[in-house]
Amino acid sequence: MIGGVRGWHAAATLSCVMLGAPAVGVTQSLPGGSTVPLRLAIQEALANSRTVADAEYDLEIARQQVREAWASVMPDVSGSVSYQRNLMVQELFFDPSAIPGGGGGDPVRVRIGSDNTWQLGFTVSQPLFEYGVFIGVGAASRYRALQEERLRGTTQEVVTAVRRAYFDALLAESDLRLLEQSVERVAQTLEETRALNRAGLTSQYDVLRVEVEYANIAANLQRVRNAVGARKRALLVEMGHAPERDIELEGRLDEVDPESLEVNTPENVDLIILAGIPGVLDSSLTDLLQVADAQRTDLRQLRANILLEEARLKAEKGEFIPRLSLFGNYSLQAQEDGPPNFFGENANQRTSSSAAGVRLEVPIFQGFRRFARVGQVEATVRQNETRLVRAEQDAANQVRTLYEAVDEALARARSQFRAVQQAERGFEIASAEYREGIGSQLQVTDAEVALRQAQFNYAQAIYDFLTARAQLELALGLVPERPGEFPVAVM
Fold first, then answer.
1. DSSP 23
2. According to the model, what pLDDT value does residue 300 have?
3. Nearest 10 degrees: Cα torsion 243, 246, 247, 248
4. Which residues pair with 331 in a beta bridge?
5. Rg of the chain over all Cα atoms, to the nearest angstrom
6. Biggest distance spanned by C-alpha atoms of the chain
7. d(CA 197, CA 191)
8. Which residue in 210, 196, 211, 217 sits closest to 443, CA to CA?
9. DSSP H helical segments within 296-368, as ranges?
10. DSSP for residue 330
11. pLDDT digits (tens, 9 = 90+) for 391-435
C-alpha cells in the first residue's frame, strides 16, 4: 500500500490540476443525514461565514473611503435658495441732521426691506495645491489594500478551520469504527472461549477475563459516539449551519495511503489533494521561506499597515505647507411687497452679484500641535517596523516547524502502516493457535490490543499529516480563497 517515500507527490502533480472546481450548488440549509464532502464543507463555509462577511463589509467601507478621499480634490459646488415672509418689515430711525444740509427735526422712520424676500446663490471652490489632500487619496488607497489583505487572510483562516474541523470529525469516526471492529473481535474471541470452556479445554477464569475485556471496550462506545457527534457539530458551526443537523462525511483516515494516490478511493483522494499543497516536501525549506515572506497574510498586512502609517506621516507633515485654492460665487436677491410672486416680475426688484478669486492659506503656529502629531505617527511607524521584524522571525520558525511536522507525520504513517500489517498477522496467528489449543487466551488479548492501537496510531498519523499540510499552506499564505481555485482530481 505504501509506495516510495514521496511517490504520491509526483502522482499528485500529474493527476491534480488547478481547474475551476465543478459547480457545487451552494446550499443555505443542509437536509438531515446529507453527505458533506470536504469540498462542499469548504464552499459552505466561504458562503456562510459571518467572519468573512464582516471582512467584506470592512473592505466596502474602505472602498467608499477612497471615493470620499477623491472628492477632496474635486470642485466643491453648492447652491442655496430661500424665501422669507416678513410679517413685520423692519424699520430704522434716521436722524436728518446727520446729512449735511439736512436740517434738524424729528427722526425719520425708514422702512428696510419688503414683505417678501428671495435669495439664490451658488458657490464654487477648487483646490489648486493642498498637499494633505493629495496624500489623503493615497492613504485611502493603501487602507483599501490593507482591508483587501485582511479579507484574504480571513478567508484563508476560515478554509483552514474547516479543514481541521473536518479532519477532527474523521479522526473521531475512525476511532469509533476501529473500536467497533475491536468489540467485534473480542466478542468473537469470547464466543470461542466459551465454546472451549464447554469442551473442557479452557478454564472459567479465561472466560471471565475475556468478558471483562469485552465489557471494558464496549463501555467506551458511547463516549466515542458522543465525541463523533461533538466534532460534527463543530464542523457544522464552521460551515455556518445550525449544529443540530445530522451529516455524513466522506473519507476514512485509517484507509488513506498518503504516498500512492491511485490506490485510494475517490473520497480519500479528495482528502489528500484538498488538505494542502501537493508535493510540499519536494520543495526546499529555503524556497518555502521565501514564499512565506512574500505571500503570508500577516506579514503582508503589517507591511501594508506600515505604508498606511507612512502616508499618514506625510499627511501630517503636509499641515505645514500652504494651501492654494480658487473660489467663486454668484447670488441673486429679490424683494417685493404684497402677495408672494416668485422673484417678482419687475427687474428693478432684483439684484445680483458675483465674485471670483484665489485664496492662499499659510499655517503659522498652532501651539506645537502639528509637531506632536508628526511625532506620534513617526513612533507608530517605528513600532510597526519592529513588529514586522518579530513577525518575520515567528513566520520562519512556524514554517520550519510545520515542514518538519509534515515530514515526520509522513514517516510515522509509513512506519505505522507496517505496524498494522504486522499486528493483523500477529492477531491471526494468536487466534489460530488459541483455537488449536496451543496458545493462551492472554496472547489473543495482547494481540488484539496491539492491533487496535496500531490501527488507531495509523489513523492518527494520517490526521497529523493532513492537518500539518493544511497549517503549512496557511503559514505560507497559499490557501485558495474561492472554491474554483481548489485542485480537482483528474484520474
1. P
2. 92
3. 140
4. 121, 353
5. 40
6. 152
7. 10
8. 210
9. 297-317
10. E
11. 999 999 999 999 999 999 999 999 999 999 999 999 899 888 878
Compute CA distances 56 → 226, 237, 238, whole Å.
36, 20, 18
Pseudo-torsion of CA 35, 39, 41, 46, nearest 10°?
-150
Residue 124's DSSP bridge partners are 77, 328
Cβ count near 401 (within 10 Å): 13
Rounded CA-CA distance 79/366 in Å is 33
Phi, psi for 43 (deg, rounded to 5): -65, -40
Place of cell 442655496: 80
Instruction: Report whether 144 contacts 327 (CB < 8 A).
Output: no
Identify the pLDDT of residue 404.
93
The burial class, CB within 10 Å (0-12 / 13-18 / 19+), for 259 is: buried
The CB-side HSE value for 131 (13 A sphere, CA atoms) comes to 16
Q: Are strands 247-249 and 34-36 parallel, antiparallel or unpaired?
A: parallel
| CA–CA gap between residue 477 and residue 491 (Å, rounded) | 28
**pLDDT tens-place string over residues 174-201:** 999 999 888 888 888 888 888 888 877 7
| pLDDT tier, 101 (very low <50, low <70, confident <90, very high otherwise) | low
Output the CA torsion sign for 149, 151, 157, 159.
negative
Question: 3-class DSSP state for residue 360?
Answer: strand
C-alpha distances out from residue 298 to 200, 284, 337, 350, Å: 71, 22, 72, 66
Residue corresponding to grid cell 484520474: 491
Residue 130, Cα to own-chain centre: how many angstroms? 38
The pLDDT value recorded for residue 28 is: 46
